[in-house]
């Protein structure tokens, strides 16, 4: 099984904006970026999953008009911080969250552990595809969680995983009867 994790392309929001589940548009040149990304994928793949966010579904539709949306692939919910500039978020709230982002959450938002749980549960369902190629169009947080899950990286180290706009991350599962091994 090969899994291709793709982060959506650049978004059209002011630099430094906090957006998670807020549905923000892509930059105007997105279709050119889509074409470049498609060339990085195999000529055919069996299924495309996408976050329901517009910034992901546009790319998923370009790759395969019959893509499937999956709520588990939504980005972290930043609650009251959604749409704010990071610099305008109350410093004491950022401090509390930053000291333990795994279990703390923004006001009316969700914590990283919840994001990890929903993405890893979805990831486990992909085993039904056995020897097929799967494309997943999602967000930086979702992709970081999936990589951390596959490679057993502690969530405290998750931000060491770099996930750029419009980047493709390929993983191959080599299954033997004793254990699963993921190869990048």
Structure description:
By secondary structure, the chain is α/β, with parallel strands linked by helices. The chain has one domain: Rossmann fold, CATH 3.40.50. It is built from 5 helices and 6 strands; from the N terminus they run E-H-E-H-E-H-H-E-H-E-E. The chain has a 6-stranded mixed β-sheet with strand order 3-2-4-1-5-6. The two termini are 12 Å apart. 26% of the residues are buried.
Give the SSE map.
Blueprint: E1 2-7, H1 30-39, E2 47-50, H2 54-63, E3 68-69, H3 91-99, H4 112-125, E4 133-138, H5 140-151, E5 168-175, E6 180-183
Concise overview:
It comes from Soonwooa buanensis. By secondary structure, this protein is α/β, with parallel strands linked by helices.
What descriptors fit this protein?
alpha/beta, 5 helices, 6 strands, globular, Rossmann fold
């Amino acid at each position: 099984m090969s899994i291709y994790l793709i982060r959506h392309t650049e978004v059209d929001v002011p630099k430094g904006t906090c957006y998670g589940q807020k549905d923000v548009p892509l930059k105007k040149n997105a279709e050119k970026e889509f074409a470049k990304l498609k060339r990085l994928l195999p000529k055919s793949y069996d299924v495309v999953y996408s976050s329901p966010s517009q910034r992901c579904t546009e790319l998923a539709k370009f790759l395969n008009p019959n893509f499937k949306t999956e709520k588990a692939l939504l980005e972290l919910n930043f609650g009251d911080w959604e749409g704010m500039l990071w610099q305008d978020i109350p410093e004491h709230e950022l401090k509390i969250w930053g000291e333990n982002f795994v279990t703390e959450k923004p006001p009316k938002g969700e914590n990283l552990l919840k994001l990890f749980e929903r993405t890893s549960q979805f990831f486990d369902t992909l085993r039904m595809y056995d020897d097929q190629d799967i494309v997943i169009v999602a967000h930086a947080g979702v992709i970081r969680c999936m990589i951390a899950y596959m490679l057993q990286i502690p969530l405290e180290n998750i931000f060491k995983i770099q996930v750029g706009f419009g980047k493709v991350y390929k993983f191959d599962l080599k299954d033997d009867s004793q254990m699963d091994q993921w190869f990048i």
